[in-house]
Amino acid sequence: MEKLIITAAICGAEVTKELNPNIPYSIDEIGKEAELAYKAGASIIHLHVREDDGTPTQNIDKFKVCIEEIKNRCPDVIIQPSTGGVVGMSNKERLQPIYLEPPPEMATLDCGTCNFGGDEIFINTENTIIEFAKKMNERGIKPELECFDKGMVDMALKLHDKGYIKDPMHFSFVLGVNGGIKASARDLTFLVESIPKDSTYSVCAIGRHEYPMVTLSIIMGGHARVGFEDNVYLSKGVLAKSNGELVEKVVRISRELGRDIATPMEARKILGLN
User: Fold this and answer.
1) Which of 51, 136, 259, 261 fits 55 for a cystine, CB–CB 3.0-4.6 Å?
2) Per-residue pLDDT at 164 exceeds 80
């Protein structure tokens, strides 16, 4: 079995210090959290950025300085900006980080619309997905195909058949989100069996589902994402002190199961980035 790629989603767009005071907002805080995750074993930093008061933003200049800070601390780490932003942002706003120079190696590509709860609808029309995929292709950026449900996998495969999404495909199965697929062994197996054998996938799950689903992914040959974006607890009732603690727990689980951890360079080879 190939080595495990660990992605650390270090801050997300909406989780707040009220939920866990260790959530990073500022450039320095984001740099420190990325470094702790990297030193613990993460080879990819999934990146949202914030204003200093925690307000989510897709501002390209904020991404630029945060990425510079991370690269100064972790020169070889893979940085994966989010193009999801937050509900209500325009496509133009969301796409800003793909225009960084040099372009990021990866960026997220959300593959469908999802009811996040109440009146919040995360809108990704077919035309939006095609637009984002085209622009990532133009910039030489590998999309991580974020799928919150089976229909999103089908959309990604459809657009792959039409040439908008290139091989090798890398999926991110996001489990347990309101409006999306449940975080269960049955549903993860369903998703994994729905993608081509030559593609790769990573698993993240929300809250208490994080470690059970990540463990299952490790056993099944998939990869793992953890971090404050998805879960702020190290164990029941125990707030994590850092993203590094969350990554360390994945490393322990993986090694107990006999699976080694990929370095950033090994992750690039597995994902077809080099």
Assistant:
1) 51
2) yes
